[in-house]
């Protein structure tokens, strides 16, 4: 199929392109930018005057809840939600039931994602069997089945020696590991950032050192093993600073931050609302400022939704008895545009952190609008606004932003040249 | 914003109490009204016939998800003296072990036409959750939620101080011990601040003091002798045995040596100082028997005042909740 997209402001951070240009798509790829290729006869035209055309967003952490947690979400429901948020490629974490530690589970996820057809799914495999931190999962078999990286989620390795070996084994095959750095022992029993808000509410605290202690250890083991590592879900200014220092001494590590960490702080917990219960926790305004700074400078090169849909019951209990997580992939683009609205980032930098930044971190074939690349893109109206929740596709309504008017509105999401979401 | 929201949850449209969840955000006038009402109920307790008919025909349900003797019993007595029907449930040993959720347990009790729930729960914020999401039309009284709040204990402590010291304006009050895990300490700090106490001190080792405790407007002491100097009121907190595990403290013995209240140490306080404790006391752990049973101790008075304070809170919340229902009905009729 041949598609002609007319008059959009094309922003492609990978090439530095920013200007009005027509796009020509053919056979699922970008055929030309600017002038029409000779003899191009479009079957489909999209009038995109006033819209921005950007690479489809790449989200490194979207829990699809399938297999195993279908009351929280399905591959079909959550990938559709992602497409509505402007996402064309996403990674799903291995915390499924059964855990994504065998090729069969990876194949099931990929099959159902293909069947749903809303966006591209790149599974992250479990680094160890059942995420137990004891026995390695069959990493190479999982890679061959389509896993793009390997992680253990927030589940800690019971032994530093096992962690070191896992990293060395992954390094042998040039696999990327995704590390969530929160020391489970220091965080034990914690429900919120250890600080005045948690103290006032009587919620057990998770100290900043739960992140920095684990991060220091992980950085040293990554350096020693030489593995490709991506640090996911940073929460503290000090943590971001440690990543910056590691990068400055030449360690090729990357990092992401959850979008909600860039917007909220632990003060949101003041009414015990379980919608703000997340792990690792929301931290202070100073931490948020540090994370925003690291995002701007590129120390943190990716923004992820860390989307975790839940059924209503999971949030209907006293704070400590609720399940952590926010459902937000559906709002990824408009919510992220609040950072531009608040003058924290310019639009091209924001798009970079949502597309080629995350794609490069996990070496995904995505995140750029160069000629020949897959025609994965999002068209959005920067002047319009989105009323969060007016339409809702995710099975999880556990989103504290519902009811808010957010800047920008996704008009089209295209995957391989096909419109898979249209407002 | 947070204070306004919390007030709207606890107060009705006319600013009267309709739930009693936390002392945070409650104005001084309201706390004083609770104390004045409790004072008047103390006379009821001294009469031969100890009942008033304020809650006749109402059902008070004590739902305790955590064990308690003193708090539950004094709530029962308070409700009975107000002529209410009273049911007490220890839920920790019944429904939840069958897998019933907090939500369902309370909805079932509500269906039995209860009017007031007194709830104790191990999770901070449980009472807020119930008042906001489970039974907003019943009067919810927080009987203690996790480490967060124990507002009736806070108010009975204030009544004790006011009756023995006459007021709060010129007082020095020291709170000693395990502040970190104590909902009593949090409620006391808030109440003392609101009632205008100029010198609130907390005393304990760093492992038992919460991060950011200065936000309560208190002075922090890690040395007991320095903290007790010239205080008018000493509030001792209970030290749970399990604090020795997990490295918070080396031993009960060392805690007693450093923070235990002995007769000798009490001489550092003012000669007419009073000693309080929410109970149950650990003799020889946080307090010497000679102090607990001595002339300065008002620990048993606290228990007596506790009934009067709970009568005040139960009757005020019921009346505020009833008024709110009438407001809602009128609004509906107008629509």
Automatic annotation (TrEMBL), chain A:
<keyword id="KW-0862">Zinc</keyword>
<feature type="domain" description="Dihydroorotase catalytic">
    <location>
        <begin position="52"/>
        <end position="236"/>
    </location>
</feature>
<dbReference type="GO" id="GO:0046872">
    <property type="term" value="F:metal ion binding"/>
</dbReference>
<dbReference type="GO" id="GO:0004038">
    <property type="term" value="F:allantoinase activity"/>
</dbReference>
<dbReference type="InterPro" id="IPR050138">
    <property type="entry name" value="DHOase/Allantoinase_Hydrolase"/>
</dbReference>
<feature type="domain" description="Amidohydrolase 3">
    <location>
        <begin position="342"/>
        <end position="421"/>
    </location>
</feature>
<dbReference type="InterPro" id="IPR004722">
    <property type="entry name" value="DHOase"/>
</dbReference>
<protein>
    <submittedName>
        <fullName>Dihydroorotase</fullName>
    </submittedName>
</protein>
<dbReference type="GO" id="GO:0004151">
    <property type="term" value="F:dihydroorotase activity"/>
</dbReference>
<dbReference type="Pfam" id="PF07969">
    <property type="entry name" value="Amidohydro_3"/>
</dbReference>
<dbReference type="InterPro" id="IPR011059">
    <property type="entry name" value="Metal-dep_hydrolase_composite"/>
</dbReference>
<dbReference type="GO" id="GO:0006221">
    <property type="term" value="P:pyrimidine nucleotide biosynthetic process"/>
</dbReference>
<dbReference type="GO" id="GO:0005737">
    <property type="term" value="C:cytoplasm"/>
</dbReference>
<dbReference type="InterPro" id="IPR032466">
    <property type="entry name" value="Metal_Hydrolase"/>
</dbReference>
<dbReference type="Pfam" id="PF12890">
    <property type="entry name" value="DHOase"/>
</dbReference>
<dbReference type="GO" id="GO:0006145">
    <property type="term" value="P:purine nucleobase catabolic process"/>
</dbReference>
<dbReference type="InterPro" id="IPR013108">
    <property type="entry name" value="Amidohydro_3"/>
</dbReference>
<dbReference type="InterPro" id="IPR024403">
    <property type="entry name" value="DHOase_cat"/>
</dbReference>
<keyword id="KW-0665">Pyrimidine biosynthesis</keyword>
UniProtKB/TrEMBL annotation, chain B:
<feature type="binding site">
    <location>
        <position position="71"/>
    </location>
    <ligand>
        <name>carbamoyl phosphate</name>
    </ligand>
</feature>
<comment type="subunit">
    <text>Heterododecamer (2C3:3R2) of six catalytic PyrB chains organized as two trimers (C3), and six regulatory PyrI chains organized as three dimers (R2).</text>
</comment>
<dbReference type="InterPro" id="IPR036901">
    <property type="entry name" value="Asp/Orn_carbamoylTrfase_sf"/>
</dbReference>
<dbReference type="InterPro" id="IPR006130">
    <property type="entry name" value="Asp/Orn_carbamoylTrfase"/>
</dbReference>
<dbReference type="GO" id="GO:0004070">
    <property type="term" value="F:aspartate carbamoyltransferase activity"/>
</dbReference>
<keyword id="KW-0665">Pyrimidine biosynthesis</keyword>
<dbReference type="GO" id="GO:0005829">
    <property type="term" value="C:cytosol"/>
</dbReference>
<feature type="domain" description="Aspartate/ornithine carbamoyltransferase carbamoyl-P binding">
    <location>
        <begin position="18"/>
        <end position="162"/>
    </location>
</feature>
<dbReference type="InterPro" id="IPR006132">
    <property type="entry name" value="Asp/Orn_carbamoyltranf_P-bd"/>
</dbReference>
<comment type="similarity">
    <text>Belongs to the aspartate/ornithine carbamoyltransferase superfamily. ATCase family.</text>
</comment>
<feature type="domain" description="Aspartate/ornithine carbamoyltransferase Asp/Orn-binding">
    <location>
        <begin position="170"/>
        <end position="316"/>
    </location>
</feature>
<feature type="binding site">
    <location>
        <position position="183"/>
    </location>
    <ligand>
        <name>L-aspartate</name>
    </ligand>
</feature>
<dbReference type="InterPro" id="IPR006131">
    <property type="entry name" value="Asp_carbamoyltransf_Asp/Orn-bd"/>
</dbReference>
<dbReference type="GO" id="GO:0016597">
    <property type="term" value="F:amino acid binding"/>
</dbReference>
<feature type="binding site">
    <location>
        <position position="70"/>
    </location>
    <ligand>
        <name>carbamoyl phosphate</name>
    </ligand>
</feature>
<feature type="binding site">
    <location>
        <position position="238"/>
    </location>
    <ligand>
        <name>L-aspartate</name>
    </ligand>
</feature>
<feature type="binding site">
    <location>
        <position position="120"/>
    </location>
    <ligand>
        <name>carbamoyl phosphate</name>
    </ligand>
</feature>
<dbReference type="InterPro" id="IPR002082">
    <property type="entry name" value="Asp_carbamoyltransf"/>
</dbReference>
<feature type="binding site">
    <location>
        <position position="280"/>
    </location>
    <ligand>
        <name>carbamoyl phosphate</name>
    </ligand>
</feature>
<keyword id="KW-0808">Transferase</keyword>
<feature type="binding site">
    <location>
        <position position="153"/>
    </location>
    <ligand>
        <name>carbamoyl phosphate</name>
    </ligand>
</feature>
<protein>
    <recommendedName>
        <fullName>Aspartate carbamoyltransferase</fullName>
        <ecNumber>2.1.3.2</ecNumber>
    </recommendedName>
</protein>
